[in-house]
Amino acid sequence: MYKETVYSAFNLLMHYPPASGAGQHPQPQPPLHNKASQPPHGVPQLSPLYEHLSSSHSTPAPVDISQKQVHRPLQTSDLSGFYSLTSGSMGQLPHTVSWPSPPLYPLSPSCGYRQHFPAPTAAPGAPYPRFTHPSLMLGSGVPGHPAAIPHPAIVPPSGKQELQPYDHSLKTQAESKAEKEAKKPTIKKPLNAFMLYMKEMRAKVIAECTLKESAAINQILGRRWHALSREEQAKYYELARKERQLHMQLYPGWSARDNYGKKKRRSREKHQESTTGGKRNAFGTYPEKAAAPVPFLPMTVL
DNA sequence: CTGCCTTTGAAGTAG
DNA sequence: CTACTTCAAAGGCAG
């Protein structure tokens, strides 16, 4: 009932999109998962979906962290004029208060704090690299669309793209029922702004830093994310908003609750243990040791 | 094979 | 309402 109301509101929104300016958005009914779905202040509405991806973007200017002029992440207050925000909505402060935190992983000199912000690789005004995430292409997975490519959010429970071949061995009714249930494709959460940024930039970081460990790469990406200008971040927030909209359109009945508890739950004790150095990290070292000053990183920037 | 590591953000849950 | 938890991606690695 509640959901129907929400989806009706959503459909209404889809059929009668705001002419321009999020300030004119009708306040959606208790939003299911499109809270704060408006772009940050000053970000123009994108007209065809993701059109801006093929438009020209100047390469982000290199950022000198040593001057500590890093753009802070978007915050609720930044968007207050634009959004009807509730707790936990977009633009919230990072989980870690002590940002920027010292890296747990030793970064190579080429990926050090000063160095890892790339010098412009293209002439000013050169096109910004296109997003490659298939879900960012409108139409993929949209029913009736010629491409008819399944939306990447749909994956078998195994996480693999291919479904497992049917097991013909004899099974009890309960077993096969449970198995059938388990084999139902999982609809994944739509990617948030940072995840989209990671997806786009991962390969670049891997190439630059000759790293493969995702944990280390993600640390670098987290720092780069914070170093992005608000406008650059806004681009990804907008993309994420479109992602959520598309996701809602494709899977009207889906809720993040559906996947809750499907992964092995990480106990709080374990998490604290790891953050206090009780567990090995992706480098095979231990956080309390790895968190020690990294030789080739100037402490002034940490 | 499973889960951890690591990041941010969205959304769920609990009090 | 607030604080906390889970899950999205990624790939190496330990158990």
From TrEMBL:
Q: Name one GO cellular component term.
A: beta-catenin-TCF complex
Going by the UniProt record, its keywords in alphabetical order are:
Activator, DNA-binding, Nucleus, Transcription, Transcription regulation, Wnt signaling pathway
Q: One of this protein's GO BP terms?
A: canonical Wnt signaling pathway
User: What SUPFAM superfamilies does UniProt report for this protein, alphabetically?
Assistant: HMG-box
Q: Show the PROSITE patterns listed in the entry.
A: HMG_BOX_2 (PS50118)
Family named by the database record:
Belongs to the TCF/LEF family.
Annotated protein name in UniProt = Transcription factor 7 isoform X2
What is the source species? Carlito syrichta (Philippine tarsier)
Q: What lineage, starting at the top, does this entry show?
A: Eukaryota, Metazoa, Chordata, Craniata, Vertebrata
